[in-house]
Design brief:
With 64 residues, the chain is of the alpha+beta class. It has a single domain, classed as Beta Polymerase, domain 2 (2-Layer Sandwich), CATH 3.30.460.10. Helix content is 27%, strand content 20%. It is built from 3 helices and 3 strands. The chain has a 3-stranded antiparallel beta sheet. The radius of gyration is 14 Å and the shape is flat.
Amino acid sequence: MLDYARKVGERPLGVSGYEACVWILLDFVDVVFHIFTRSAREYYDLELLWGDAPRINWARSESA
């Protein structure tokens, strides 16, 4: 993600967890990426945490 972001001229507002490589967070303001190891993903189970949140159908606009 970071390589691609740099390639298209974007920089994250913040990056966290890169040293431990268990849960990496990339904050691009409008979009936040959470990158987990399999064991961390199972442990934190964010799908369960946010499971009752409404789903939003999203599609990229033509102007993007």
